[in-house]
Amino acid sequence: MTLSFTKMHGLGNDFVVIDTRHSHSVPSTDMIKHLCDRRLGIGCDQLVLLSAPTHDGADIFVRFFNPDGSEAGACGNASRCVALYLQDLSAPTLQTHAGLLSTSRQGDMITVNMGAPRLDWQEIPLNHACDTLNLPVQGITPHPAAACSMGNPHATLFHGTQDAETLGPILEHAPLFPERANIGFAEILSPTHMRLRVWERGAGLTPACGSGACAAVVNAARRGLTERACTVDVDGGTLHIDWRDDGTVWMTGPATRVFEGTLS
Ligand SMILES: N[C@@H](CCC[C@H](N)C(=O)O)C(=O)O
């Protein structure tokens, strides 16, 4: 079988995009893991599968896979890349497991409406009822985390970015998160500015996590630490997040096409 792919990135969070709309070759889970491998395959933080939409009003159906083969409901940086990939459409609507996402392009900057965050413990999900602004993770860290879902589960800690590599993998697998979770480590710089590193579920530390930035701003605003519109500096650059009064979260940042290839 041959597979054509496009390598893209959003602030260094990199993707192998495979468009199956005009082919019969859909990679299996083992193949996805292999393609994501940086030594044995192409290498990426997520593999993005495109297919024909099944929903009225959508231009494309997008699925996101982590290097461990698990599927994620949302991926902010990849959503911007897909909006860039569909270059013939100026404002494509993406069908994802997290819902329909509208997008728009201003030069090389792309805005995605990531939808409304889910704040109830069942929707994140957590494994028991608790205050999602003060999660019981004291056995792992003295600092309480806050959680929400952006279509995928996120928890954010607000005590600096230094523990991302050590606490991230432990919290990702904490029993509190039955579907595991992406773990954000934030430092609040001002009411409209934060620094963030994210340990991603199924991928580890990445240079940027778009849904993680959305979740961090939602969690920070709920805690009263920032305003609802906030600039987020990640290792790979800067994202602008706006949790609008209608409840939806809008993310703006760049997307880049790197190269195209064919695998046999
Ligand atoms: N890189 C992403 C998030 C990818 C999915 C995540 N690892 C998960 O399993 O939920 C982003 O930019 O949002």
Automatic annotation (TrEMBL):
Can you tell which superkingdom this protein's organism belongs to? Bacteria
Which Pfam families does its entry note? DAP_epimerase (PF01678)
- Keywords assigned: Amino-acid biosynthesis, Cytoplasm, Isomerase, Lysine biosynthesis
Q: Where in the cell is it found?
A: Cytoplasm
Q: What is its EC number?
A: 5.1.1.7
Q: In which pathway does it act?
A: Amino-acid biosynthesis; L-lysine biosynthesis via DAP pathway; DL-2,6-diaminopimelate from LL-2,6-diaminopimelate: step 1/1
Task: Write out the catalytic residues in the record.
Answer: 75, 75 (proton donor), 209 (proton acceptor)
InterPro entries, from UniProt? DAP_epimerase_AS, DAP_epimerase_DapF
Q: Where is this site: Could be important to modulate the pK values of the two catalytic cysteine residues?
A: 154, 200
Binding sites annotated in the UniProt record for substrate: 13, 46, 66, 76-77, 152, 182, 200-201, 210-211
Catalytic activity as recorded in UniProt:
(2S,6S)-2,6-diaminopimelate = meso-2,6-diaminopimelate
GO MF:
diaminopimelate epimerase activity
- The signal sequence is none
Assembly, in brief, is: Homodimer.
Family of this protein: Belongs to the diaminopimelate epimerase family.
Function comment? Catalyzes the stereoinversion of LL-2,6-diaminopimelate (L,L-DAP) to meso-diaminopimelate (meso-DAP), a precursor of L-lysine and an essential component of the bacterial peptidoglycan.
What is this protein's record name? Diaminopimelate epimerase
UniProt organism field: Neokomagataea anthophila
Gene that this sequence comes from: dapF
